Amino acid sequence: MSLVLLIIMAMATATLLYTINTLMPTKPDINKLSPYECGFDPLGNARSPISIQFFLVAILFILFDLEIILLLPLPWSINTNPTTTTTTMTTALLIILTLGLVYEWLQGGLEWTE
């Protein structure tokens, strides 16, 4: 009985949605007819220049994000591994992360110039 009711409700919903779709007026717009609705001109230059500084910051974000992901299993590894091994590995990873950040800072990779 419930399967029949489910089929009837699905067919009624599909019929209602189809009816609403066919009866609703459509307003074609120049932006809706374009394959790109993001605001870019599809006939313009596809190779727009990107700032190298933005690219470097994005790469740094990805690298540091991956290093943070390596720290996520830390609470579970404390319970399964010996505490000294976990502490040593975590400390080494944090030192590498900090040294990488200091190196990028000293090289000027984090400064945004116009």
Automatic annotation (TrEMBL):
Enzyme class: translocase
One Pfam family recorded for the sequence: Oxidored_q4
Membrane topology qualifier: Multi-pass membrane protein
Keywords: Electron transport, Membrane, Mitochondrion, NAD, Respiratory chain, Translocase, Transmembrane, Transmembrane helix, Transport, Ubiquinone
EC number(s) per entry: 7.1.1.2
GO terms under cellular component: mitochondrial membrane; NADH dehydrogenase complex
Recorded superkingdom: Eukaryota
Catalytic activity: a ubiquinone + NADH + 5 H(+)(in) = a ubiquinol + NAD(+) + 4 H(+)(out)
Compartments, record wording: Mitochondrion membrane
GO MF, one annotated term: NADH dehydrogenase (ubiquinone) activity
Chain ranges passing through the membrane: 50-74, 86-106
Family: Belongs to the complex I subunit 3 family.
Reported function: Core subunit of the mitochondrial membrane respiratory chain NADH dehydrogenase (Complex I) which catalyzes electron transfer from NADH through the respiratory chain, using ubiquinone as an electron acceptor. Essential for the catalytic activity of complex I.
The protein's name in its UniProt record: NADH-ubiquinone oxidoreductase chain 3
Organism of this sequence: Ovophis okinavensis (Ryukyu Island pit viper)
